[in-house]
Amino acid sequence: VAISMGNPHCVVFLDEGEALKDFPLEKYGSVLEHHELFPHRVNVEFVERHSATVFSQRTWERGSGETLACGTGAAAVCVAVSLRKYGEDKILIHLRGGDLQLHLAEDGFIYKTGPAVTVFSGVYPM
Predict the structure, then answer these.
(1) Sequence-separated contacts (24+) of 116-124 with Cβ below 8 Å
(2) Which residue from 23, 29, 118, 122 is spatially nearest to 67, judged by alpha carbons?
(3) Parallel/antiparallel/unpaired status of strands 43-49 and 8-13
(4) Which of 10, 110, 115 is nearest to 61 (CA)?
(5) Rounded CA gap, 97 and 95, in Å?
(6) Which end of the chain is more exposed for a tag (fewer CB within 10 A), N or C?
């Protein structure tokens, strides 16, 4: 499912029974990122459906490779779930960087709830 969240996303739902943890993300993420359908490249979300309200997501971010989490990617998954009628408007997504609750509200906005944590700190000499 190709979706713009202000930046381009392609949401790929795995087949039932296919495990996201075993999915060759590096192989297919790069292929889709550079596909001719996306002349400016694309962020790719690979999604495993556990139930109508619980999903797992791994993200291939254009120009970076796999990332621990992606807020706009999770929002794209929420919209794709709704468009394809794969689940509810309130869902939980398990990301490598932590869990995120999303709600596609009647007003058309997507509300996200989850922890904010430091994953890196550093000092750059100037």
Answers:
(1) 119/68
(2) 29
(3) parallel
(4) 10
(5) 5
(6) C
In Å, what is the CA distance from 36 to each residue of 32, 33, 104? Answer: 9, 9, 30
DSSP 14: P
Measured between alpha carbons, how far is 4 from 99 in angstroms, rounded to an integer? Answer: 22
Compute the distance between CA of residue 71 and CA of residue 30 in angstroms, rounded to an integer. Answer: 20
Is this model's pTM higher than 0.85 or not? yes
Which residue numbers in the chain have pLDDT < 70?
none
d(C-alpha 97, C-alpha 74), whole Å? 12
- Token duo for residue 31: 């292929």
Supply the pLDDT for residue 119. 80
Give all strands (DSSP E) within 1-126, no chain letters: 2-4, 8-13, 43-49, 54-61, 65-67, 90-95, 98-104, 110-113
